Amino acid sequence: MDQLIEWDKKHFIHPTSSIRDQQEKGAKVIFEKGEGIYLTDKNGKKYIDAMSSLWNVNIGHGRKELGEAARQQMDQLAFSSAFSTFSHEPTIQLAKKIADLAPSNLNAIFFTSGGSESNDSAFKLVRHYWRIQGQPERNKIVSLKRGYHGVAAGATSATGIPEFWDMAGQLQSGFVHAATPYWEGTQGSIKSIREVIEAEGPETIAAFIAEPIQGAGGVLVPPSDYFQEIRKLCDDYGIVFIADEVITGFGRTGTMFGLEHSGVQPDMMTFAKGVTSGYFPLGGVIVSDQIHGVLKEKSMGTLFHGFTYSGHPTAAAVALKNIEIIEKEGLVENSRKMGELLLEGFKKLKADLQIIGDVRGVGLLGAVELMEDPSANKRFSPELKVAGKVIEALHQRGVICRAVAYEGTDIICFSPPLVIKEEEVKTLLEKLREAISEVA
Ligand code: PLP
């Protein structure tokens, strides 16, 4: 164990981490196995994985069927190219399956290995779409403050959380941000987007991108009329609407895709995470029939965009098995039902514990927001790191959650595996009550 910690410090640069902390403290937990909603570390301590790790292990840990699907596919054909006119059956089957699940106007898929690659691919595809129609000046992307779209060059630039730009500077030009509806309401956000578009020049705007629910920004649920208004706004200006369903896709919010709650169809949708529940890296962009039609008609020569793993047969086999499990076991429905229980529990906690300012949730994507004085809308001083302390108290009790503390907020996020059961939701809520009570 000591040796592992030493090698971890010396050789492993952790993603999204404090390199200094890692050097000083070493790995806090070395996970060894997972089953259902639980993870166990090398010391035998068991945790509820209340974040589905990174909002992605939708079917829960330890599902042997996925390993079996990967093994069978690897035995037969682990990998071959999908470039140009090469193809293979699992990826064709998966494209068809996703087209069947997605909104009826979205039927063609470009595959990637994750969410960031998907969003960067969407930005390139949408710029290409305008170029081949003789409008190369339409190249800017509008996104929302507190939105999170990943860490590749375009995805970082579209992300509306400034902390992500500090590391290497704003990576790309042509990305502009408008107010989130969570704090500004539908009309406030729409007004802000219109102002941004007018200031930049509507003829320079290629697309608008948003998550149906802002996840990493703090599970910020928009008002129910928001995406209807977004659809109208995008149609008014003739701009492409990209839904980033990387977290909300594949059952997370109690529907197959998050935007289904508003009944709105986007022009492009990006996905990743829940498509394989993390058992294999995979993501993609689904484009509308209209966009696909323009690409087919006007895109000349080679589309110079393709990752080695765009259309990985083993990833596709794993995704097909994962989606089969989601459907067979009714996990979308379970997400809705257990999400209702979780939200009800959050509401009870809010009634009892004075420092809870807001609770929210759609399906199994939820959050509890802490405030020093909710009646005065007064937040805690950031130096107190209140959310961080609650996360630590949860950790001590064997629950893994995530704190969001941007712009002085103290938010505890929840995104448990969709297989969670009623008793487990209750345990989670009890531990949350204890942890918050201990801190304040
Ligand atoms: N988009 C959203 C909404 C996300 O939450 C994430 C990751 O958390 C991404 C994109 C980036 O995905 P990845 O980390 O797979 O690149």
Features:
binds pyridoxal-5'-phosphate, globular, 4-stranded mixed beta sheet, 440 residues, Aspartate Aminotransferase, domain 2, single chain, 15 helices, alpha/beta, 7-stranded mixed beta sheet, Aspartate Aminotransferase, domain 1
Write up this protein:
The structure is a single chain. A hairpin with a 2-residue loop joins β11 (356-362) and β12. α4 runs antiparallel to α12 and α14 (386-396) packs across α15 (422-439). It is built from 15 helices and 15 strands. It folds into two domains: 36-59 and 331-439, Aspartate Aminotransferase, domain 1, CATH 3.90.1150; 65-328, Type I PLP-dependent aspartate aminotransferase-like (Major domain) (Aspartate Aminotransferase, domain 2, 3-Layer(aba) Sandwich). It is globular and about 60 Å long. It is α/β, with parallel strands linked by helices. The strands form three sheets. The chain has a seven-stranded mixed beta sheet, sandwiched between helices. Strands 1-2-3-13 form a four-stranded mixed beta sheet. Strands 11-12-15-14 form a four-stranded antiparallel beta sheet, with helices on one face. The model has no long low-confidence stretch (mean pLDDT 96). Bound molecules: pyridoxal-5'-phosphate (PLP). Residues 114-116, 119, 148-150, 211, 215-216, 244, 246-247, 272 line the site of pyridoxal-5'-phosphate.
